Amino acid sequence: MGLGKTHLIQATGNKIKEKFPDKEIKYIPAEKLISTIVNAIRNQNVEDLKRRLREIDLLIVDDIQFIAGKDKTQEEFFHTFNSLYQKNKQIILSSDRHPNNIPAITERLKSRFEGGMIADINMPDFETRLAILKQKSEEKGVNIPEGILEFVANNIQKNIRELESALNRLVIYKKANKAYRDWE
After folding, report:
1. Mind listing the pLDDT tens digit for each residue in 52-75?
2. Are 22 and 180 in contact (CB under 8 A)?
3. Sign, Cα dihedral of 61, 62, 67, 73
4. pTM to 2 decimals?
């Protein structure tokens, strides 16, 4: 959805590693987790995978909704989740929807997911979108009039990636057309 979930969980993992350098932290996108589990099953290395995943201090899985409908992956993840939880280890999951709204996830996994803290990341308001545009244009070293940035912030409301893409197009247009006199 482009709301910054991946950046947020990666930053969280980085901060924890900074404060606790001895902690074993594993960040993995759900798609990679799925392929890792499938390969372990195919190559008969499941026990090795279990050992590696269950000995870490913090497991971060991005876009957990992608394990929906993947029965073997859900089964292995369920046992890994339980093992880490029982050892008082930390688990951070991101998803583009609430656990109840992920189809084809087993009830026992939904129950585990709901047992933790759920933070809903909403779309940024106008002021935040405008601040993002100002900061990004400043980082790019391009001065774009506030009225143009306000127009973009007003018209792109759902996705930060779209907001950045619009800004990038403005920057390219300005540089390609030497539009400095037109805007300033």
Report:
1. 999 999 999 999 999 999 999 999
2. no
3. negative
4. 0.75
